[in-house]
Amino acid sequence: MGFSKELVAKAIEENGEENSNLILEALLQYSASTSASSSNSKLIDHFVGMGFSEEKVLKAIQENGDENTDSILETLLTYSALENSAPMPQNADSGNCSSDSDGSFLDDFSDFDSLSETEEIMNPDSDEESKLLYLTKMGYSEAEASTAVERCGPDSSIAELTDFICAAQMAKAADALYPLEDKKPFDSNHKKRRHMHYDLWKRKKQMKTPLDEADDALHLPNPMIGFGVPTESDLITERKLPEAAIGPPYFYYENVALAPKGVWSTISRFLYDVEPEFVDSKYFCAAARKRGYVHNLPIENRFPLLPFPPRTIHEAFPLTRKWWPSWDSRTKLNCLQTCIGSAKLTERIRKALEQYEDEPPLSVQKYVLDQCRKWNLVWVGRNKGAPLEPDEVEMLLGFPRNHTRGGGISRTDRYKSLGNSFQVDTVAYHLSVLKDMFPGGINLLSLFSGIGGAEVALHRLGIPLKNVVSVEKSEVNRNIVRSWWEQTNQRGTLIDIPDVQELNADRLEQLMDRFGGFDLVVGGSPCNNLAGSNRHHRDGLEGKESSLFFDYCRILDLVRCMSARNQ
Description:
The chain is α/β, with parallel strands linked by helices. It is built from 23 helices and 9 strands. Helix content is about 45%, strand content about 10%.
């Protein structure tokens, strides 16, 4: 049966020779214990290999169990941050603040908007060498600092450069949790799609700029206001589109702004060389959300949704003002993610603060603020930080109250769906130009619809939705959109399609013949392989999820070709 002689002898000694059932039961227990011990040993070796001490690893496993590696890693990072945040001797160099930045920023919040003192300390017009020196004084390596400046551009602020470095650090930590053997090969359907992408690439390459030129990174603007936002005076009202991009039909594509090098150049090239419009939603609401938008919409005569949403944390959540510490200078939240801070994290914060009657030392303040910024914690009581509720996230993103609530949808699904959605007020500002163009209503093809951010934006603008074809993989999200459609008494037609692969030329032609074509093709393909806290592998647009961008291009090309033919 495969048991060792030593184990068999031990089982017989403990249970006697007569009861074979007890002996077998003991042997099975020994085997299970040995297996668990072996598995536990591998887990310990894994985290020790990441640089944590064996003592801290054992403590973290004891606190979290050995099944949830994410919780173990979070606890280990907390240990490191607290240890590195220990008060420095009075004669220590106060400028050397590197030690507590390493462990406390290992999450990719590419929309991180620190609003920290560094922007005041560092003149945004300072030269590249000064910024490199400042980043190294903050504790980042020369390689990290140089790469950040190269990728983000020499005109980027210190806050943007540290955002980029934090994203890279999180990516490194995340990759450590995925052994090479866990990276499963793509399925056959994905391989077929890649062949299709290559054919599309070759066809478009003949019309586009050389690849070498396209590899140059697009530098993100600062401030990130695109062609203009309602709260800023700098507005651009005219632009010249490439002839191949001129609508109708119109298109509107969205994805994360801080993507790997060359991604936005590729996106622009595949979408008729249209210049991306990079906008941070912090100019529309109380939370940052840095996104890039490629579209062929007019940019003059835009108007915002009214009333304006709350623009600061205290405007959005006035009851938090009573408990807000004077040393927490945040006025905006960071990007709203698909997950939230754990109860154990908020407990650790409470215990860390309860040790001090007055203001905690600067080292503790920094640790707590790091966690608050990472997880968007707000103060709901004395020393009580708490994550946002789903209803609060809905409000910040511009969705109606209870948009994602009920109908069998779990809190986890609500956070996930909201974290992957549009910020409605931002998108509505861009789409507002369509109101006068389509007074009788619009035919919408919504790809990767999510929870219907574009549909909600058009509805709130007062643009009737005549016919909507919504393509969305998640059944949870499809149910949310269907429920919203019915509750808002939409008079048009809503068609659900679960997979973009089903939307081939024949199906598109049938739909366009039925509705008379599409006026707008909108979508934001998955960002899993580009950036964000839900990233698994950073394969760019070649990644299994983010390569769905090419399906957006394929379908948009078909719509525009069929529209031109029908005219």
